[in-house]
Design brief:
Strand order of the largest sheet of chain A: 3-2-1-4-9-8-5-6-7
Largest sheet of chain B: none
Structural class of chain B: mainly alpha
Number of domains of chain A: 2
Radius of gyration of chain B: 22 Å
Helix content of chain A: 40-55%
CATH topology of chain B: Amino acid/polyamine transporter I
Helix content of chain B: 55-70%
CATH architecture of chain B: Up-down Bundle
Largest interface: A-B, 28 and 32 residues
CATH class of the largest domain in chain A: Alpha Beta
Oligomer: heterodimer
Number of helices of chain A: 8
CATH superfamily of the largest domain in chain A: HUPs
CATH topology of the largest domain in chain A: Rossmann fold
Shape of chain A: globular
Largest sheet of chain A: 9 strands, mixed
CATH superfamily of chain B: Amino acid/polyamine transporter I
Order of helices and strands of chain A: EHEHEHEEHEHEHEHHE
Radius of gyration of chain A: 18 Å
Distance between the termini of chain B: 7 Å
CATH class of chain B: Mainly Alpha
Strand content of chain B: under 5%
CATH architecture of the largest domain in chain A: 3-Layer(aba) Sandwich
Number of strands of chain B: 0
Chain lengths: ~240, ~475
């Protein structure tokens, strides 16, 4: 099936997306969401009246890059006060199965794939494949052992996932697995992500920490400056 | 262009938003002012004011679901009754919110002085400084924080509840007797004065486009918040009257006038120093948020009027750097500071109430105008049950209160009407050919071919969106 990926931008004056990333995503349907953040003093409609045209033009310029690379592009422009909420709503509305936190990149050599369980893999696999480039040397399937989990079971789960990927056509030399113990899931990912060039992960239920510190993908993107693809749940 | 909006206000958020916009000067500052007019029956005055607001809340909810735009009150009246009444209502509601903010700031100053002992002469200076801070914050832009708002409302309601529970047993029955010292007329006058306690009701309407399931949540949130506030106000004022001596209420304020901090006077009797500090802190929280909401909310009306060519174009510009309606906020801010400096605080409250009653009355009439003329663009999701009786009650109640207010507010109401009309004739009229639903209706009836389409009344809605 064709994937539909949401790529959010802050407007005005969006950060341009690196060409490599544009090309990686060109095979998918791309929904570009321009979000213009407003303070509570300003009503969305008033802002749209004044800035709507010029901001749409900025968004269209971004869309042109993706179209030039051959992607099927939809643009959505939101004036509002709550960016994460807008991203969520548009993702649902546009039937997107993943979101990209775009970041400047000069080539993706190593991709980190945190796996919660084996079910997880199926939905992540295509996006990992999309990010694969000629230069890619390594895809790491990763899990942090927490609470009641047993190391042996986790290793078996990851190995199984790796074998499935190989069976699906991934180069066996490319895919390896990593298990971490004695460190919680989030901080382990944050630490490991520094050594990688991109992260592909499933969407987690937002817990207390997410509400206070921002979502894990946002924190990864902030800390490492790498593109992060989050594959949405229940589609 | 697709119109993507965040509809993220549920019923609960809408109720807290509405309550947050209401709790403030009305309860922390005005009980003693009302007491002077009505005696212990000021308790009934708060209820009465709430009852007169109810029809307006229903009318507002109906029109907000038909015209979910910023600057609601102005827009409803303008589109129903034409730009002449639109200008009067727009300026009236703007002024009433600026009055409300300035009197909240003066009250805030009075409560601050309970915590820091300085001569009472500096209340005005403190109010001016606080006003300056509020204006700067609003020019710079603040992040919307529904959660902070909910926390403030929750904290203030808790403090008020504690005040009531603690004070209920301590009231001196003698202080309620006789209840009606000034007769029924005095109660009406007091109700008119404390009307501003419900001014925040327009807040939810102005964010109607962000409310989810507006046909249900909007009217429900407005009615719920008014009902809750009526209960809170009545209980709190009953306790204040019960535990604070008439002498303190009537002469405890600056220059021997009515006390501006009646709740703290009461708290001192309950819990000693701690009570005063807690009440003062709650008052400061509520009054700050009220002053801020007033500046933020009133700027919207200038913006909407600027969009409709009733005010010079710069007031509707949104600043590129701050992304705020900087000019509108500055106009509001300068007026706010001038009012604090030159108008006595009790007059500020009275004028705020008078303008509000005037505008609310027009708003009830606007629903009648929309319904009777049956214009094409008016298609509310929620319609007021009991129309037109509800509106008639609202209008009669409003007029009755307005006539009880005495000279200054009456002159103010006449002044804003005349001033608004003059401004429209000199500035607005040459610049707009927009007409209200009423004019459209009569043109149609006399067969004026030019105006057969109701869309004419909403020209600005068709542009730019």
């Amino acid at each position: 099936m064709t994937h539909r990926i949401l790529v959010p931008f802050e407007l005005p004056d969006p950060e341009p997306v690196s060409r490599l990333l544009v090309e990686d995503l060109a095979a998918m349907e791309v929904v570009l969401l321009g979000h213009y953040s407003l303070p509570e003093q300003t009503s969305p409609k008033a802002a749209r009246r004044q800035f709507g045209e010029e901001t749409q033009a900025e968004l269209d310029a971004l869309a042109a890059d993706f179209e030039a690379a051959g992607a099927d592009v939809t643009t959505r422009l939101v004036f509002g006060k709550d960016r994460p909420k807008a991203i969520d709503e548009i993702a649902v509305d546009e039937n997107c199965d993943a979101e990209l936190d775009p970041a400047p990149t000069d080539g993706i050599d190593r991709i980190l794939v945190p796996l919660v369980d084996a079910e997880n893999l199926e939905r992540l696999e295509d996006f990992v494949a999309a990010l694969l480039e000629a230069t890619t040397t390594e895809v790491t399937l990763f899990h942090a052992v927490e609470g009641e989990e047993k190391r042996g079971e986790i290793e078996a789960m990851l190995d199984g996932a790796r074998e499935r990927m190989v069976a699906d056509g991934f180069d066996p030399d490319l895919v390896d697995v990593a298990v971490v113990e004695g460190e919680d899931h989030d901080s382990a990912i944050l630490r490991l992500a520094e050594e990688y060039d991109a992260v592909v992960m499933g969407e987690a239920d937002p817990g207390i920490a997410e509400r206070i510190f921002g979502s894990l993908p946002d924190r990864i993107a902030d800390r490492t400056g790498d593109p992060v693809i989050v594959v949405r749940r229940n589609l | 262009m697709s119109e993507d909006l965040e509809r993220d206000l549920g019923l609960y958020s809408a109720v807290t938003l509405s309550m947050g916009a209401m709790i403030g000067g009305g309860i922390f500052v005005l009980p003693a002012v009302g007491y002077k007019k009505a005696g212990p029956a000021v308790i009934i005055a708060y209820l009465l004011a709430g009852l007169v607001v109810l029809p307006n809340a229903l009318s507002k909810a109906e029109m907000a679901t038909a015209i979910p735009e910023d600057g609601g009150t102005y827009l409803y009246i303008d589109r129903a009754m034409g730009p002449l009444f639109g200008t009067i209502a727009g300026l009236g509601v703007w002024f009433s919110l600026v009055f409300k903010s300035s009197f909240a700031l003066v009250g805030l100053g009075a409560y601050l002085l309970l915590l820091v002992s300085v001569p009472s002469g500096v209340v005005k200076v403190v109010a001016l400084v606080l006003g300056g801070i509020v204006v700067v914050l609003n020019v710079g832009g603040t992040e919307q924080s529904g959660r902070a708002q909910a926390v403030i409302v929750g904290a203030v309601v808790l403090v008020l509840a504690a005040f009531v529970l603690d004070g209920a047993t301590l009231g001196e029955p003698g202080q309620y007797d006789p209840l009606l010292t000034e007769g029924a007329g005095g109660v009406a006058t007091a109700a008119a004065f404390v009307f501003v306690s419900y001014a925040g009701i327009g807040e939810v309407a102005s964010v109607a486009e962000e409310v989810s399931n507006p046909g249900r949540n909007l009217p429900l949130a407005m009615l719920t918040s008014i009902a809750v506030m009526m209960v809170i106000y009545t209980a709190v004022v009953a306790v204040v009257v019960g535990i604070v001596g008439p002498d303190t209420l009537l002469h405890g304020g600056p220059n021997g006038g009515p006390s501006l901090t009646p709740m703290a006077d009461g708290a001192g009797d309950l819990l000693g120093g701690v009570g005063v500090v807690v009440i003062a802190a709650a008052a400061i929280l509520a009054l700050t948020s009220m002053a801020n909401a007033g500046v933020l909310g009133s700027s919207r009306f200038l913006l909407a009027m600027g969009r409709d060519s009733l005010l010079p174009a710069p007031v509707r510009r949104i600043d590129r750097r701050f992304k705020t309606p900087r000019n509108a906020v500055l106009v509001t801010g300068v007026t706010l500071l001038a009012l604090i400096a030159f108008v006595p605080v009790v007059d500020l409250a009275k004028l705020a109430s008078a303008f509000l009653i005037l505008v609310f009355t027009l708003e009830n009439l606007a629903v009648v105008a929309f319904r009777e003329t049956d214009v094409a663009f008016y298609d509310p999701i929620f319609t007021v049950p009991g129309y037109p009786l509800v509106q008639i009650v609202g209008v009669v109640g409003g007029v009755a209160l307005l006539t009880r207010m005495g000279l200054v507010p009456a002159l103010g109401a006449v002044g804003i009407t005349a001033g608004g009309a003059l401004w429209y004739l000199v500035y607005g009229r040459p610049r707009t050919d927009r007409v209200g639903a009423i004019t459209l209706y009569f043109r149609k009836r006399v067969g004026d071919g030019e105006a057969t389409d109701g869309v004419l009344a909403l020209p600005e809605r068709k542009r730019g969106d």
